[in-house]
């Protein structure tokens, strides 16, 4: 199941979210050619990625920021940017532009430090925006636990879009990170689970004062956990493309 959109429209232009999307994509394009040269790519990641053993030596603190703008492949980049696109605009609206940028980067730093705490002697470089974006997910869950998220379900030849509440989508995602992080192969599968966990928890903690200023539990009570504005409505349209067993095939737009 893959998230494709939420029903939580933002009332303001998410300039920082757009800038982060563009920056990550442009940086990836700038070194994409290095994927044909594994040694050169590894030098880049060792120099600008977060290497826990380097932090343990007392250097490389700048990589707690720089690692957030590097990605290990097209799918790594694509999924991170998809999550940022879906959830970032609402958090930016709550925080304001520059405070949201600070929140995002701080969550990324917290994610890197969490991964470092669990593997302080590792020489494997950590790259990716997923720790920072996990913080955005944590803040989103705190503010909009019952916002609806459209999930794309595909099982072989079965495809469907299913709306699911954010608490189940994001809470389930966090639970899977914890389960995988505690598993026996966590350090061998190339995923920084503890960075995801640390970023998510940091996002909840950093967003908590803002949530309390907005009313805290009263905010939940007023809106029953839904966004405080009308949800986006997506309508079904019909197409002339034939489908087996049907005269017409409905598509979501």
From TrEMBL:
One GO BP on record is:
proteolysis
**Peptidase S54 rhomboid domain boundaries:** 63-211
Pfam families reported in the protein's UniProt record: Rhomboid
Report the transmembrane regions from the record: 15-34, 41-57, 69-88, 100-118, 124-144, 151-173, 193-212
Keywords linked to the UniProt accession: Cell inner membrane, Cell membrane, Hydrolase, Membrane, Protease, Transmembrane, Transmembrane helix
Mostly located where?
Answer: membrane
Q: Membrane topology per the record?
A: Multi-pass membrane protein
GO molecular function, a single term: peptidase activity
> What InterPro entries does the database record attribute to this sequence?
Peptidase_S54_rhomboid_dom (IPR022764), Rhomboid-like_sf (IPR035952)
The record's subcellular location field reads: Membrane
Q: What is this protein called?
A: Rhomboid family intramembrane serine protease
Phylogenetic classification of the source organism: Bacteria, Pseudomonadati, Pseudomonadota, Alphaproteobacteria, Rhodobacterales
């Amino acid at each position: 199941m893959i998230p494709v959109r939420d029903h939580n429209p933002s009332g303001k232009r998410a300039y920082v979210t757009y800038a982060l999307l563009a920056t990550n994509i442009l940086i990836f394009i700038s070194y994409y050619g290095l994927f044909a040269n594994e040694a050169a790519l590894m030098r880049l990641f060792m120099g600008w990625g977060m290497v826990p053993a380097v932090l343990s030596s007392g250097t490389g603190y700048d990589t707690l920021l720089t690692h957030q703008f590097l990605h290990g492949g097209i799918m790594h980049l694509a999924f991170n940017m998809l999550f940022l696109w879906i959830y970032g605009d609402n958090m930016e609206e709550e925080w304001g532009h520059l405070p949201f940028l600070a929140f995002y980067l701080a969550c990324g730093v917290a994610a890197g430090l969490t991964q470092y705490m669990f593997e302080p002697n590792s020489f494997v470089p950590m790259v990716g925006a997923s720790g920072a974006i996990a913080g955005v997910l944590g803040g989103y869950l705190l503010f909009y636990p019952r916002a609806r998220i459209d999930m794309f379900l595909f099982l072989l030849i079965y495809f469907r879009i299913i709306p699911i509440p954010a608490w189940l989508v994001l809470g389930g995602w966090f639970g899977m990170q914890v389960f995988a992080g505690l598993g026996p192969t966590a350090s061998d599968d190339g995923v920084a689970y503890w960075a995801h966990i640390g970023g998510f928890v940091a996002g909840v903690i950093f967003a908590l004062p803002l949530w309390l200023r907005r009313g805290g539990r009263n905010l939940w009570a007023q809106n029953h956990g839904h966004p405080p504005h009308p949800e986006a409505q997506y309508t079904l349209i019909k197409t002339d493309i034939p489908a087996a067993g049907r005269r017409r095939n409905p598509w979501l737009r």
